[in-house]
Amino acid sequence: MSRVGKKPITIPEKTKITYKDRVITIQGEKGLLTRSINPMIDLKIKDGIIDVIMMKDDRISRSLQGLTRSLVANMITGVNQGFERALEISGIGYRAELKGRTIVLNLGFSNPVNFELPEGISAAIDRNNMITLSGIDKEKLGLAAAGIRQLRPPEPYKGKGIKYAGERIKRKAGKTGVK
């Protein structure tokens, strides 16, 4: 059984936290995040520490305690340091270009694919084949990165497509010729 939910969260300096009516608001150097808390969970903020407390001790409450603790900790990290996710594009003629809040991707289809960035997520493109997404909300960032990767996932034969930086693609052998 995981004990993630029982670990207290330390609040860094220059971070302002308010918890009222089951809604937590965290303000830091990079921005502001708000999230509603499940009614089965309560938060106690005291002396620069946040404790996540279950209302009753059952299986669902234990899982929600760990989830809530992780979400709040990620919110604190996001408003203070931010998050980044890098994507690599590999394949002949595959490239990306940034036009305002839209990423234009040439991925071997007959027309370019336009991907609109969600609010709060910014992108940078290096050498036409590296996309770096950044933002303060880890959930939005992960969904945006997954949405871009889903447009052309890496295929196992040549490895062409969009993959996360550092992701390993399990390769398959191609056809063998008859001799």
Describe this structure in words.
With 179 residues, this protein is of the alpha+beta class. It is 20% helix and 37% strand. The chain has two helices and 13 strands; from the N terminus they run ββββββαββββββαβ. It has a four-stranded antiparallel beta sheet, covered by helices on one side. Strands 1-6-5 form a three-stranded antiparallel beta sheet. Strands 2-3-4 form a three-stranded antiparallel beta sheet, covered by helices on one side. The longest helix has 22 residues, at 59-80. The chain is elongated.
The total of helices stands at: 2
- β-sheet strand percentage: 35-45%
**pLDDT under 50 segments (min length 5)?**
none
If you compute it from the alpha carbons, what radius of gyration comes out, rounded to the nearest whole angstrom? 21 Å
User: What would the average pLDDT be, to the nearest integer?
Assistant: 93
Reading side by side through the largest sheet, how are the strands ordered? 11-12-7-13
Number of domains: 2
What is the CATH superfamily label of the largest domain? Ribosomal protein L6
